[in-house]
Recover the amino acids of this structure.
C-alpha cells in the first residue's frame, strides 16, 4: 500500500484497523520529503522530532485500543506564517529568519488537541505577498507537476507539499487568493472560508481585514473535515465569529443557487481554464443547482484599485512592529535610534514588502488619508 | 507623478532607509499604482451606504481588568537582541 497518497478518512480507518502504525506512516512521509523535496523545495523547516514523538503517542493510544480523534496520527504541514510553539517561524522573510514562535496559533492548538502530526513549515512569498512563491527570501518552490513552473502563491509550499504527497493535508493563508490560486495551480483542494470563521490568533498579520486561514487537501471531504476542526469563535481573535453549524447530510445541491459573474469570463481568461470552469458549472447544473448569470460591474478592475488602497494601508500598520528591538533582524552598524530603524527595516525586508509599506504609508499620510478613505 | 521629496518623506515615515537609486525606482512604481487607483473616481457612489464588511462584525468589549499574560515575559524577552534587567535595550534618543 502506498501510504502517502491516502486521504484523511482512509488513514483514520487504517490506523484503527492497525493496517499500519502512526510511526510507520510518519516515517513514510519523512522519507517522501527526503526524496522529493530536494527538487520541489516546499519546506523551510522540518519538525522531525515533534512529528515522530506525536506519532508514537498515537500508537500508544491505539495499542490500548483507545478511541482516537479523526486527525490523530495524520501527517500534515503548516505554512510558515502560522506559529507553532518553539519552532522557527520566518514568514519567508529575512527579518524573521531566526524567530522562534513563543506560543501556538489557535488553529495549531486545535490540531494538536486532535493529535495531528506536524511534519514541518512550508515556503511562501515573503509575508504572504506574492502569487508564485518565488519571492521567499530563502528559495523558490517548484510545481511538482512540472518543475519548470511555479506552484502559485503565496501558500505555494503548502500546495506543492500536498500535491507531491509530502503531507496528507496542509494549512495556508489567503488574503487575496493565496490559498485558492496555488491550490488551482497544483491541482489540489483549497478552501478559503467565510471571514471570521477561523481564528487568526497566531497568524502573522498582513492585511487584517482580509486575512484568512484555510486547508489544502486531496479531496473536498478532507477539506470539510479540517475546516470543521479549525473553525469556531475564539476569544483570542475578536474578529472571529460563531458560524452556524452546517448539517452536511441535509445539504442538497438542488437547493443551492450559484451566481456566475459575467465579468469573470471577459478578456484574459485562458481557454483551458474556461473549459474547466464551464464544465464544473454544467456538472452542478446537471445535479440540480440553480445557475444564474449575474453582473458584478466593479468586481475586477475597480475592486483591484480598492484593494491597492486597503491592503497596503493595513500592511504598513501591521509591519510597523518589525523594528529590530523586540525581536527579528537588526542592523549592527547604526549611529543612533532613527538610523537603527531605517537600516534594520531596509536590510530586513525584501523589495515587494518595502513597496507595499511605502504605498500604505502614502495612503495613510496626512492629506491623502482623507482623499482615499 | 509624485516627487522625489515626497518619496523620501514617506520612506522616513515608514522607517525605511531607501538608497538614492531606490528612491527613483519607487517614485516610478508608486506613481504607476497611484494612477491606477484613480480609476475609483469613475464610480458613482452617491446613494450607496458605506460597507465595512460583507458580514456583520460587532465590536467586542471586555471589562478593564488586569489578567495574566498567556506567554511568560521571559520567553518573549529571550527573542530580543538586547535586554537589561528585564527591559528591552534601545540606543539613546537624546
Amino acid at each position: 500500500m502506498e501510504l502517502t497518497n491516502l486521504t484523511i478518512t482512509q488513514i483514520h480507518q487504517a490506523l484503527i484497523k492497525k493496517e499500519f502504525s502512526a510511526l510507520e506512516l510518519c516515517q513514510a512521509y519523512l522519507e517522501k520529503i527526503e526524496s522529493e523535496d530536494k527538487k520541489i523545495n516546499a519546506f523551510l523547516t522540518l519538525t522531525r522530532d515533534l512529528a515522530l514523538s506525536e506519532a508514537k503517542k498515537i500508537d500508544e493510544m491505539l495499542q490500548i485500543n483507545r478511541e482516537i480523534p479523526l486527525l490523530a496520527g495524520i501527517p500534515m504541514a503548516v505554512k510558515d506564517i502560522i506559529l507553532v510553539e518553539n519552532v522557527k517561524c520566518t514568514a519567508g522573510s529575512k527579518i524573521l529568519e531566526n524567530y522562534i514562535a513563543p506560543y501556538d496559533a489557535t488553529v495549531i492548538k486545535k490540531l494538536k488537541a486532535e493529535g495531528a502530526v506536524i511534519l514541518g513549515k512550508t515556503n511562501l512569498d515573503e509575508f504572504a505577498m506574492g502569487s508564485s512563491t518565488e519571492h521567499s527570501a530563502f528559495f523558490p518552490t517548484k510545481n511538482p507537476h512540472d518543475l519548470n513552473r511555479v506552484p502559485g502563491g503565496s501558500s505555494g509550499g503548502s500546495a506543492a507539499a500536498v500535491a507531491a504527497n509530502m503531507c496528507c493535508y496542509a494549512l495556508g493563508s489567503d488574503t487575496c487568493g493565496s490559498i485558492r490560486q496555488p491550490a488551482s495551480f497544483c491541482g489540489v483542494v483549497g478552501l478559503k472560508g467565510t471571514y471570521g470563521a477561523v481564528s487568526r490568533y497566531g497568524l502573522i498579520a498582513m492585511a487584517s481585514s482580509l486575512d484568512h486561514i484555510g486547508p489544502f487537501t486531496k479531496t473536498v471531504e478532507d477539506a470539510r473535515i479540517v475546516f470543521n476542526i479549525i473553525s469556531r469563535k475564539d476569544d483570542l481573535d475578536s474578529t472571529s465569529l460563531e458560524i452556524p453549524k452546517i448539517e452536511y447530510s441535509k445539504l442538497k445541491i438542488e437547493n443551492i443557487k450559484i451566481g456566475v459573474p459575467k465579468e469573470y469570463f471577459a478578456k484574459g481568461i485562458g481557454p483551458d481554464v474556461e473549459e474547466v470552469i464551464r464544465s464544473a458549472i454544467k456538472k452542478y447544473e446537471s445535479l440540480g443547482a440553480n445557475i444564474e448569470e449575474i453582473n458584478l460591474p466593479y468586481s475586477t478592475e475597480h475592486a483591484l484599485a480598492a484593494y491597492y488602497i486597503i491592503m497596503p494601508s493595513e500592511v504598513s500598520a501591521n509591519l510597523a512592529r518589525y523594528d529590530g528591538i523586540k525581536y527579528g533582524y537588526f542592523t549592527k552598524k547604526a549611529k543612533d535610534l532613527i538610523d537603527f530603524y531605517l537600516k534594520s527595516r531596509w536590510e530586513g525586508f525584501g523589495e515587494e514588502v518595502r513597496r507595499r509599506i511605502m504605498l500604505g504609508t502614502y495612503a495613510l499620510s496626512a492629506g491623502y488619508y482623507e482623499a482615499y478613505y | 507623478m509624485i516627487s522625489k521629496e515626497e518619496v523620501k518623506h514617506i520612506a522616513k515615515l515608514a522607517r525605511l532607509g531607501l538608497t538614492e537609486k531606490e528612491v527613483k525606482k519607487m517614485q516610478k512604481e508608486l506613481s504607476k499604482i497611484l494612477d491606477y487607483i484613480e480609476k475609483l473616481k469613475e464610480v458613482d457612489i452617491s446613494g450607496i451606504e458605506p460597507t465595512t464588511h460583507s458580514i456583520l462584525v460587532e465590536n467586542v468589549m471586555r471589562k478593564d481588568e488586569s489578567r495574566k499574560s498567556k506567554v511568560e515575559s521571559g520567553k518573549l524577552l529571550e527573542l530580543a537582541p538586547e535586554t537589561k534587567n528585564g527591559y528591552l535595550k534601545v540606543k539613546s534618543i537624546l
Observations:
- Chain A is about 40% helix and 10% strand.
- The beta strands of chain A are 43-46, 75-79, 117-122, 169-174, 189-190, 212-217, 257-261, 290-294.
